[in-house]
Design goal:
It is a single chain. The protein is mostly helical and 104 residues long. It has five helices and no strands. The chain has helices at residues 11-24, 28-53, 59-66, 70-79, 88-103. It is elongated.
Length: 104
């Protein structure tokens, strides 16, 4: 259920929102909701990235916080310049463990 709220916004910003609403053929409230929604999602992606980079959460947890799949989260991290310290050696070790488990 939607809930009405009241907030104060800068006049210049609202004029820009009004320009967009005219271009889009919609009302100010709809544009503001879209902007808030988009901003919220971007904020959550950034928050998830920060926690992941700091080692506070796993990749899967970061993806969940961000509302993304693990693959999308990886793509986002790479696009933000994050470089993993996961090496070929780590991969080889993980694959060896997988092979041992598979033979059981």
């Amino acid at each position: 259920m939607a809930e009405a709220i009241g907030i104060r916004m800068d006049t210049d910003f609202l004029q820009k929102v009004d320009t967009i609403s005219k271009e889009e053929g919609t009302d100010r409230s709809t544009i503001l909701r879209k902007l808030l929604n988009k901003g919220f999602h971007e904020f959550m992606k950034e928050k998830a990235k920060e926690k992941y980079v700091q080692g506070k959460i796993t990749l899967s947890a970061a993806a969940k916080v961000a509302g993304l799949t693990i693959w999308e989260m990886q793509e986002f991290l790479v696009s933000e310049g994050y470089k993993s310290d996961y090496s070929i050696k780590d991969l080889e070790e993980d694959m060896a463990v997988f092979e041992r488990i598979k033979k059981r």
